[in-house]
Automatic annotation (TrEMBL):
Main location: cytoplasm
Species annotation: Brevundimonas lenta
Gene3D superfamilies cross-referenced by the UniProt entry: Bira Bifunctional Protein, Domain 2
InterPro entries: aa-tRNA-synth_II, aa-tRNA-synth_II/BPL/LPL, Phe-tRNA-synth_IIc_asu, Phe-tRNA_ligase_II_N, Phe_tRNA_ligase_alpha1_bac, Phenylalanyl-tRNA_Synthase, tRNA-bd_arm
Entry GO CC: cytoplasm
NCBIfam families from the UniProt entry: pheS
Region (Disordered), start-end ranges: 154-180
Keywords, comma-separated and alphabetical: Aminoacyl-tRNA synthetase, ATP-binding, Cytoplasm, Ligase, Magnesium, Metal-binding, Nucleotide-binding, Protein biosynthesis
Localization per Swiss-Prot or TrEMBL: Cytoplasm
Assembly with partners or alone: Tetramer of two alpha and two beta subunits.
Protein name as catalogued: Phenylalanine--tRNA ligase alpha subunit
Family: Belongs to the class-II aminoacyl-tRNA synthetase family. Phe-tRNA synthetase alpha subunit type 1 subfamily.
């Protein structure tokens, strides 16, 4: 019995086979358990004679089981280490990398061009009060222009009844700048703006870059030169065929929209040719009421201001046909139009 058992244990191939042998020998109805149980019925003499032999048998089988189990475990670990070894010479899996959003890319380009012309960057909050977004900018109270902007209003403050807005343009930054800085002023204000609008060329959130220059003797010639120079640099051409078409904004007088001559019939943008004009920005001379509202004497200082849609200029420059996917966060679209950091 002993020899057979020890042999069988020694040649068991798996931990499960070792366990089967243990049960067969030492389990409840195992062969050795049977012998151990039989000792109870023996006479004291017989027990003294056979007891050590049976106990010895049990001990040797137990240690054989433990030894084989250890061997098998070590072999298993060995096999795993061999199978799972790390090959440090393999190339890494490519990692997906983010890229600069076209809007932000274009915003950076604009900031760089204006910085080169001596403009500083100013900022204001996305959540504005009525004063900065409308009143100080010469929107008359209850004027339909406030509705014209398709304004998002926040819930009124329960104590004061004040209704804040999501700024409908970056022009409130003009006001904030004039309230806190003495002329001469030369700033641009890039940022997010909000209007209740949604179609192929409008999204409820979009981006503008505002510009403001205040100094003595500023006139439309400065405005025209600044914007024409900017647009030419932005589109990387020597000069642009532009026209300033009379328009109305409450905060500028006179006001104009700037159009550039272009041909977009072939899908790609061709500047300075064809007979269609495209509107690219609003501008004008800062209204004397706005200067006064901000504590600047219009008899001493004059200025011009402009505002342009960053996303729309990004579409134009990079031939993006629809504005809405700009903000869908679809990584395939972003990878197609994204710019490396
Ligand atoms: N705030 C105007 C708009 O959003 C643009 C503008 C800015 C016009 C400054 C004139 C001067 O339409």
């Amino acid at each position: 019995l002993e020899l057979d058992l020890i042999n069988a244990i020694g040649s068991a191939e798996t931990a499960a086979a070792v366990e089967d042998l243990r049960v067969a020998a030492l389990g409840k109805s195992g062969s050795i358990s049977g012998l151990l149980k039989g000792m109870g019925a023996m006479s004291p003499d017989e027990r003294r004679e056979k007891g050590p032999m049976i106990n010895g048998l049990r001990d040797r089988v137990q240690s054989a089981l433990a030894a084989r189990k250890g061997e098998l475990e070590a072999a298993e670990l060995d096999a795993r280490l061999k199978a799972e070894h790390v090959d440090l010479t393999l190339p890494p899996r490519p990692r997906r990398q983010g890229s600069v959003h076209p809007t932000m890319q274009v915003m950076d380009e604009m900031i760089a061009i204006f910085a080169d012309m001596g403009f500083a960057v100013a900022e204001g909050p996305d959540v504005e009060d009525d004063f900065h977004n409308f009143t100080a900018l010469n929107f008359p109270p209850k004027h339909p222009a406030r509705e014209m902007h398709d304004t998002f209003f926040l819930k009124p403050d329960p104590e004061t009844g004040e209704r804040k807005v999501l700024r409908t343009h970056t022009s409130p930054v003009q006001v904030r700048t004039m309230q806190t800085q003495k002329p001469p002023i030369r700033i641009i204000a890039p940022g997010r703006t909000f209007r209740k609008d949604s179609d192929a060329t409008h999204t409820p959130m979009f981006h503008q870059v505002e510009g403001l220059v205040i100094d003595k003797g500023i006139h439309m010639g400065h405005l025209k030169w600044t914007l024409e120079t900017f647009v030419a640099r932005f589109f990387e051409v020597d000069g642009v065929d532009a026209r300033f078409r009379p328009h109305h904004f409450p905060f500028t007088e006179p006001s104009a929209e700037m159009d550039i001559r272009c041909d977009r019939s072939g899908g790609e943008l061709k500047l300075n040719t064809g007979d269609s004009w495209m509107e690219i920005l609003g501008c004008g001379m800062v209204h004397p009421n706005v200067l006064r509202n901000c504590g600047i004497d219009p008899d001493e200082y004059q200025g011009f201001a402009f505002g342009m849609g960053v996303d729309r200029l990004a579409m134009l420059k990079y031939g993006i046909p629809d504005l809405r996917p700009m903000f869908d966060a679809d990584t395939r679209w972003l990878a197609h139009y994204g710019f490396s950091a």
